[in-house]
Amino acid sequence: MAVHIRLARHGSKKNPFYRIVVSDQRSRRDGRFIENIGTYDPCRDPAKLIVDRRRLDYWTGQGAQASDTLSRLLKKHAAEAEASAG
Fold first, then answer.
1. Would you say 25 and 10 are in contact if contact means Cβ atoms under 8 Å apart?
2. Cβ of 2: how many Cβ atoms within 10 Å?
3. What gap in Å lies between CA 81 and CA 79, rounded to an integer?
């Protein structure tokens, strides 16, 4: 079973809200998932990303692959966090 970490869309029309979920790659985008590990709200200014890093590290250690979109978001928000801290 291939496991992916990806975004599941929720919210209403023109007001998206995403959950970061760990799911079987064969599941639908908003279908069954194994674990919910965070959220992403692009409608806020600035966009708000909340991730349980401990669970993210666990799943990547087990071989789960993050989607391209999620990888980009994680890199972007990590760079922003470093810039604001330093």
1. no
2. 9
3. 5
